[in-house]
Amino acid sequence: MAATVRIETATEVDTEILSRLLGEVEAYYGGTDTPADTAQIRAALFGPRPVATVLIARDGNDAVGFASYSFLWPAVGADASIFLKELFVRAPHRRTGVAWQLMNAVQQAGREAGCTRLEWTADADNPAALHFYEALGVDPRKDKPFYRLSL
Q1: Would you state the pLDDT for residue 3?
Q2: What are the extents of the domains in the chain?
Q3: What are the CB-based long-range contacts (under 8 Å, 24+) for 81-85?
Q4: What class, spelled out in words, does domain 6-135 have in CATH?
């Protein structure tokens, strides 16, 4: 049965829960479940130059997942795109429709901002994510390799 959750834009009040959620993301990818630095979260999301927006999925008062996104420019010509950086659902709530609701909310945010496309990456060794994105009907791009340079 699909979960019905509220999708809300995170505010500074959510810093502690975001810290714990980011720790869970790290654990999911093989790291330690250590909460993220709250000062970094405040600076990145709620400081003078926010670098991302976070949507939190809530079941009652319980945060069950989140999606973070940023806008990119240019996409095509002078169009903008929305980039999904992270989509995470806590283990007990996976396969209940929460990820679908978060993806729909990100798409809506992109439409409202006038974006022409939604873009994201996925780890090749994350079959659950790859299966989810395949179920969305979206094929991975083979013509755009992804690069990362540490700063």
Answers
A1: 66
A2: 6-135
A3: 81/110, 81/115, 81/116, 81/117, 81/118, 81/119, 82/106, 82/107, 82/109, 82/110, 82/113, 82/115, 82/117, 82/118, 82/119, 83/118, 83/119, 83/120, 84/118, 84/119, 84/120, 85/52, 85/120
A4: alpha beta
